Amino acid sequence: MKNFKIRKKLIVTFGIVLLLFVGAMASAIMGMRTLSSNFKTFYEGPYATSNASMSMRRILQGLEKDILLMTEDSSDIDMYIQDMNSLLEELNGEIITLEENLLTEESQERLEQIKLDVKEGAGYRQQIVELVKSGKSGEARVIYKNNYYPLQRLLGQSQMKLESLLTN
Fold it and tell me: In terms of CB atoms within 10 Å, which of 32, 47, 52, 93 comes out highest?
């Protein structure tokens, strides 16, 4: 380089800087693509299932709250029924999300058990609603206490086990 003229030295130096810049940009672009792929995998997999599982817990608690309030105050029964229907639609959406994203057989089996328990709970909910509508809130509370409440406890335990499977 000592024998090169200043013009040639500047061109070579600028070329080296330009090559280093292009290399750094290519490396940055590849890193961004990898990062984007990792985030997409995370948000479509573990995050979606964990979020759906936590939402499921909130929905189950909301259903139980509506049933209890309905048996105590039957004047707003239509509002409670509407809220329960809304929660059940949301629950179905969360179950679909989990079905699409669960990876392990154990978590899939736990979800199937939850679905069976939810289906069984629907029958008790319907009985309670019909009893409250016919003015038999006392009988509705008995069904809640003897049938629905124990089932809700099992559902809550199953949901928490599913959540622990998803976070480990």
Answer: 52
